[in-house]
Every structure is written in C-alpha cells, then in structure tokens.
Specification:
This protein is of the alpha/beta class. It has 2 domains: 46-366, Alkaline Phosphatase, subunit A (3-Layer(aba) Sandwich), CATH 3.40.720; 376-710, no CATH class. The chain is 57% helix and 9% strand. The chain is built from 26 helices and 13 strands. The strands form 2 sheets. Strands 1, 2, 3, 4, 5, 8, 9, 10, 11, 12 and 13 form an 11-stranded mixed beta sheet that branches. Strands 6-7 form a two-stranded antiparallel sheet. β4 (161-166), α7 and β5 (187-193) form a beta-alpha-beta unit. α12 packs parallel to α23, α17 (507-526) runs parallel beside α25 (681-699) and α19 packs antiparallel against α20 (573-598). The longest helix is centred in the middle third of the chain and has 32 residues, at 240-271. Residues 1-46 and 709-716 have low confidence and may be disordered.
Length: 716
C-alpha cells in the first residue's frame, strides 16, 4: 500500500470515527429536541385542559343567529354529539343535570340522588363536596362499579391543579362544576363564583363573563355557564314572549363567552399542547324524551377538523359521556382508574363539517332512533302472534277433526309473514331513510303480502320461509363483518340514544338471527346434514364474537350451543346429553379464549378487557343475573319468553316429529343459552321464540304419528 493510500486510510478512519462519535453523543439530544424521546419529564406531560360546560344547550341552538361562532368551532376541531345517559336515567329522584356532571367526572354512568349546592364559600378558595362519601355509597348501589372523581385523580397524577368557575347555582357555584372536576376525595383546589345580580335576568342573576379569566397553566379549568339553564327553568313562570327574550339574551351572552373567552383560550391552549372542550352534561328540558345527545366539540394539538368518534361507539360524530375522562387521560399520558369504561375520543378526519351538518346529524340520529323504538321490538304484537299460533297448535294436537292438511294451510301464512317481517327488519338499515309512518306502511304491507302469498301457494311456504330466514342471516352477518349501517340503522338494532350497544348486533337482532339459523338447521338436520350445521354454527359464533363486529359474546355462546346440539342430534338419547354438554363447554371456552387473546389494544371492544379481569367477570355475571331477574318481572318480553317456551314444550310433549321436533328442541336449547349468556337474555330469548316458533310451525307443520292417527280415528 502506498503512503498516499495509508494517509487516506488514516484520515478516513479518523473522519468516520469522529462522525460516529458525534452521532452517538448527539442522537439523544437531537431526538429529545425533535420530540422522539420515549420519556419526557412530568412537567412536559402536564398539559392544561379547559372545559366549558353549558347545561341547557339545545341542538337547535347551533343554527341560531345568536350563536354565530358554531362554524368557527367546527372548522377548528372535532365536533359531534355526546350520549349523556347517566345513572339517573329512569330514576325519578335523581337530578339529571348533576348526574350528568358526576358521570363526566367519573368516566362511567353515575347518579346524584338530588340537587345539592355547595356552601357559600366566596371566591378563590378550595372546596369540598358535602357528604361526598354518601354520594359514593349511593353510586355503589348501581349495577356497575363507579369511581367518583376519576377526572380529578387523573389530573392530579399529571400534576394539574383543579379549578372550577361556576354560575349555575344561587349565591355561590353549585355542585355541578365541582362534581365534574373533583378528585376521589371530593375536593377542588379553587372554586370561583361567576354570578352577578341583574333584575332583568331570570331569578335576578346572570353570568359574569369577566369571571372566566385566562386559565392557569398546568391546570384543569372547568367553566360552567348556567344562563341557558336558568332561562329554561324560569320559562314556565313568565309569558312566552318574555321566555323567548330570556333565552335569546342568554344565547347572546354564550356567544360572547365563546367568541371573546373560550375560543381564543382554546386556540392558545392547542398551540401550547393543551386541550379545550365544549359540551353539555344533560339534554334540555324541552328535548324529545328519547333524545340523549348533546353537542360536543374538542380542540387540541392532535385533533384535526372532522367528526369526533371513539372506539366506544365506532360511529363518526358520536361519543359517550364515559369517553371524556379517558380522552383527557390519554392527552396527559396517565392511566385512568379501572372503573372508567369509556375510550379515548379522536377525530375521524373526514373534513371540517359546518354547523348545519352538525345539526343535521342529530336530526338523522334522532329520526333513526325513533323508528327503531317504534317498529323494531314490537313485543306486544309478537306476543299476540304467539298466542294465535298457540291456539292453533292446541287444536292441531288435540282435535281429531283438525287434520294435517288444514293445519298446514293455517300455519303456513303466519310463518311466512313473521319470517318476512324479520327479514325486512334485518335489512331495514340498508333502505332509504323514512319516517315512522312510511316504515309502518312498509312493514304492514310486507306482512300482508307475505301472508297472502303463503295462503295462495301453500306448496311454496317452506321455500319462502327458508329464503326469508337465509336473507335475515345474510343481513346480520353483512352488518357484523363490514356493512355496519345495516346493523346500526336497522329497526332491530339498539338506538344510539340507548347507549346499550353501539355497534354489532343487540338482543333483538341476536334473537332473530339465532331463530332464523335454527329454522334453516331444522331443514338440514331433516336431510341428515348435521355436520354442515355444526360448521355453520361454529362460523356464526366466531363472526358474532369478532371484536370489530361488536363482540356479542352472549349470541356467540348461543351459536356454540347450537353447534353442540347439531353434533349430538344423531346420537342415542343416553349419549346425547353428555356429548351436548361437553361440546358446548369446549366451544364456549374456545370462543371466550379467542376473545381474550384477540380483543386487545386501543380499539378493543368491551368484552376482551372485561374477560381478562377476574373481578370484571364476577361483575358481569352478577349484573346478568340481576338484570334478567328484573326483566322477568317487568319486561313485556317476559310473556313472549314464557308463552314461547310453554308452546314449544307442549308441542314436543305431544309428539312433534321429524324436522319440526329437531327444530323445536334446538330452539329451546338456543333460547336457554341466550337467556343465560346475555345481559338482557329475556329479550333475546323472547325474540328467538317469537320468530323461530312461527317459522318452524309454518315450514314443518304438525305430522301426527301412526299411534296418534289411530287414536284420532277411534275418537271419530
């Protein structure tokens, strides 16, 4: 090697060594400077949070000229609707507004037994909620665990102070803001009054806008604006013109607060890494009784303009009241308490909607929920059909003159009509939007046409029922595995107002789906294709337990039970029950195990995390038992369940044969699994009987045994 080569090599090695050393020493600093570090000091994680709560804010207010800033808010952050269902829902004694504030702070549905105000402590002082321990004891009676003060605890762990500015009370801030912001000891660091006397305002008081000062850094600041709530509660005491004037005045003051205080603070907080919320803890007193949606908006550094959503709902534009705490906890890099059931909200990034879109989404959701409530379950109508079928069955099995041919012609039309109605209800989410009247006409027309076709063409009854059942199954599976609108907007689905199941199928649709599956299985079992039924029911169970489809574990367990029944159908009676129990246990445990293993991460459904916690499993079991016991006594579905089970047992006892016997036995087994495994098992099982029994009786009418024929001939 020449001297030049040696010099070049030596210089190259030195240069490479210098660059390598600089990279090793400088990389951590550069990564921290660019925000790439995996850990940050606690002070950098403690970002401020500003939350403006406006009780009494109505959806229609978003389009009012007095509130002209709604479009600017929509263009700056994620907007949508929050389901404000709290633990006070259905209770006459609880205060809905205070319960909404309490639920926001707890991260789950909580309730406040009555309206309570804080003592008059003046301003700029710490405050403690009176009898906070009693409030926790009252929430311990709810069927789920509640950790009051979750939001305050989360903020304290992140190093934030708790500051409340409230005006919705009398001489001092009322309980609401403190219920939202307090920690698990019921305390806040500072509570400021924002009320001034005004003889022209409702109750002689109005909000003092100057009290909503620039929030402190490193704090959770809760502003409560109560002028709208005061104007609403004062309206019955004055003339309509004066009530309208008070509300318009309150809206103008709210617009001033948003324009001059909250919106600039929100923009500044977002630039500094903070977060700002606008929401209402409860619906207006003038809202539709079905309506449980209130406006919500979120502005922050990680929030892009669009519809707000969360893994809780998986619906663009809708979150739950339980999602506020986990969203703030994620923003602060803090783990919320285990009792918090919500999920962090985010923007769907679908572009910035306008205020008119904001209002239109609410109108659409309310219209869909209304038609779901009116034309979905129909338990009384279903009970009437079951009673008619029951009378017909009694005649078929008891009267020698009620022959097989006549029974076939009478059972066919109701079976076709019920199967067609279930098919329409399952596919209704894919139909163009319609009001209740149009939907009722469509449903009634479908039932009448189906019954007429069944009467005119009795030889096609079985084929028509099987086709309708197959279409029902197809709609449910399409909705679970991808086309979510079929399920979420369908008449048999839970409405977004109920906050019981946000996506996937609920109890009513689960009952209809399993009943339709049983009707098809009876046809296959009659043809000796039992293992085809086993494979089909296993696939159905996996689809129903799939996390992205909604994870209806109760329906999946019922499907696994159906698979076990099909596997044991051809065995002798002495071996049938052990095989049925063994295969059911193996399939159910397999489905539960898959749910635990697969249903994890930020987008997990409610099932996976619950099954992974022994305490949660016990809570789930006790809640199911208590809820079903209450439903057996109070629900209109209870008669459907009892009548359906009695009729099925009667038909089996009186000697139903062939496919009818196989189908009725399978229906009884699957309905029992639905009853045991679902939260509202009474509803699911009642629905299964109300759909499955008419379909089976219509498709496979009573076929008397030879002994029965001889006895009937003797009676003649």
């Amino acid at each position: 090697m020449s001297g030049l080569d040696k010099l070049f090599s030596r210089r190259s090695r030195r240069l490479i060594s210098a660059l390598t050393g600089a990279a090793v020493l400088g990389a951590p600093g550069f990564a921290v400077a660019q925000g790439w570090g995996t850990s940050r000091p606690s002070s950098s994680r403690a970002r401020s949070v500003v939350l403006l709560a406006v009780p009494g804010l109505r959806p229609s207010d978003l389009a009012r000229p007095e509130l002209g800033i709604a479009d600017r808010i929509a263009a700056a952050g994620a907007i949508g609707w929050m389901n404000c269902r709290s633990g006070a829902s259905g209770s006459k004694d609880a205060d809905p507004v205070a319960s909404g504030f309490l639920s926001l702070g707890a991260g789950t549905r909580a309730m406040s037994p009555g309206a309570t105000t804080l003592p008059d402590i003046g301003t700029h002082g710490p405050a403690t909620i009176p009898d906070f321990r009693g409030l926790q004891l009252a929430n311990d009676a709810l069927p789920h665990r509640v950790h009051l003060g979750s939001l305050g605890d989360v903020c304290r762990m992140a190093g934030l102070s708790l500051h409340v500015v409230g005006d919705e009370g009398g001489g001092s801030p009322a309980l609401g803001g403190a219920l939202l912001a307090s920690d698990s000891a019921g305390t806040v660091d500072r509570l400021d009054a924002a009320l001034i006397r005004d003889e022209t305002a409702p109750y002689g008081r109005r909000a003092d806008l100057s009290a909503y000062a620039t929030p402190d850094e490193q704090s959770l600041t809760v502003w409560v604006f109560g002028d709208l709530l005061r104007a609403e509660s004062y309206a019955p005491l004055c003339t309509p013109e004066m009530a309208r004037y008070h509300r318009e005045t309150a809206l103008r003051r709210l617009a001033a607060l948003l324009r001059e205080r909250w919106f600039p603070v929100a923009q500044q907080a977002a630039m500094r890494g903070g977060q700002a919320w606008l929401l209402s803890p409860a619906t207006s007193m003038a809202a539709d009784p079905l309506d449980r949606l209130t406006p919500v908006a979120l502005i922050g550094p990680e929030v892009r303009p669009g519809w707000i959503t969360s893994p809780t709902t998986r619906r663009p534009g809708v979150i739950s009241i339980a999602d506020i705490v986990p969203t703030i906890a994620r923003h602060l890099d803090v783990q919320p308490p285990s009792e918090v059931v919500g999920r962090p909200a985010r923007s769907s990034r679908a572009g910035a909607p306008k205020a008119t879109d904001w209002l239109a989404l609410h109108s659409r959701l309310l219209a869909t929920s209304t038609i779901q409530r009116r034309l979905g379950p129909l338990p009384i109508v279903r009970l009437a059909v079951l009673l008619i079928i029951g009378l017909q069955t009694l005649l078929a099995y008891r009267s020698a003159r009620f022959g097989h041919a006549l029974q076939s012609r009478i059972a066919g039309p109701p079976g076709v009509a019920i199967a067609a109605a279930a098919m329409l209800q399952a596919w209704s989410g894919a139909l163009p939007r319609m009001d209740v009247a149009a939907g009722a006409v469509l449903l009634a027309g479908t039932v009448l046409v189906a019954a007429g076709v069944g009467s005119v063409t009795p030889h096609l009854v079985r084929a028509l029922i099987m086709a309708a059942c197959a279409a029902t199954i197809g709609a449910c599976l399409l909705g679970v595995l991808g086309f979510s609108a079929i399920v979420t907007d369908g008449w048999l689905s839970y409405s977004v107002m109920e906050a019981a199941r946000w996506y996937g199928i609920g109890n009513e649709m689960a009952g209809a789906l399993l009943a339709a599956s049983v009707a098809l299985a009876a046809q296959s079992l009659r043809a000796g294709r039992s293992w085809t039924c086993v494979a089909a029911f296993i696939g159905l169970g996996l689809a129903l337990a799939w996390p992205s489809g909604g994870a209806n574990l109760g329906a999946a367990v019922a499907a696994a039970t159906g698979a076990a029944f099909a596997a044991s159908a051809g065995l002798p009676r002495s071996r049938r029950m052990p095989i049925l129990l063994t295969v059911s246990a193996v399939l159910v445990l397999s489905i539960v195990g898959l749910a635990v293993l697969m249903d994890t991460g930020a987008a997990a459904s409610h099932i996976g995390p619950a099954l992974g916690n022994v305490r949660s499993v016990g809570d789930i079991a006790s809640r199911k038992i208590a809820l079903n016991a209450r439903l057996l006594l109070m629900s209109p579905w209870s008669p459907c369940l009892l009548v359906g089970a009695a009729m099925t047992g009667f038909a089996l006892r009186q000697g139903a044969q062939g496919a009818l016997r196989a189908g009725l036995t399978m229906l009884m087994v699957v309905a029992a699994a639905l009853l045991i495994a679902n939260d509202s098992g009474v509803v699911a099982a009642g629905m299964a009987f109300s759909v499955g029994l008419p379909a089976l009786m219509g498709a496979f009418p009573y076929e008397p045994t030879q002994a029965k024929r001889v006895a009937d001939d003797a009676d003649r």
